UniProtKB/TrEMBL annotation:
Residues 14-118 form the Transposase IS110-like N-terminal domain. InterPro entries: Transp_IS110-like_N. This is Transposase IS110-like N-terminal domain-containing protein. GO terms for biological process: DNA transposition. One of its GO terms (molecular function) is DNA binding.
């Protein structure tokens, strides 16, 4: 069977566990090297993560669970930088965590590895922001 979702040899995958004050991130470069980091929920934190992602020239695909509205800022900024942003279902994460770790308990590092697993398997959907594309907004006369 051919994996059509990750057939690019030049793909950097980033899994982010989004929280209110800081985010945990796991970066997997095309050469297989991985970097774990914690970034603050600020422009400086996003820039620090982006600089780390750009150390190896490649397409950057970022995956995250939808978390209240905190994921919208993250997705917007990274899409403006040229990254592909993907949503990973919370239910998929819960089931994958149970499968991979035989437990339902969770922590931030475990969550990033579960999101990374789902990204590698192609179990995610592209993030679409209706506000950016101005769809779903009421029309004013």
């Amino acid at each position: 069977m051919i994996d059509i979702t990750n057939n690019s040899k030049n793909l950097t995958l980033v899994a982010i566990d989004i929280a209110k004050k800081s985010h945990d991130a796991l970066i997997q470069f095309a050469n297989g090297h991985s970097v774990q980091m914690k970034i603050e929920n600020s422009l400086q934190g996003y820039q620090r993560l982006w600089v780390e992602c750009c150390k190896h020239p490649s397409v950057v695909r970022i995956g995250f669970e939808p978390t209240a509205d905190y994921h919208r800022n993250v997705a917007y900024w990274f899409q403006q930088q040229g990254a592909q942003c993907h949503l990973v279902s919370s239910l998929s994460c819960a089931r994958a965590r149970e499968m991979l770790y035989q437990t339902w308990d969770k922590n931030d590092r475990k969550d990033t590895s579960v999101i990374m697993y789902l990204l590698n398997q192609g179990i995610s959907r592209p993030f679409f922001d209706p506000l950016v594309h101005q769809t779903g907004l009421p029309r004013l006369c």
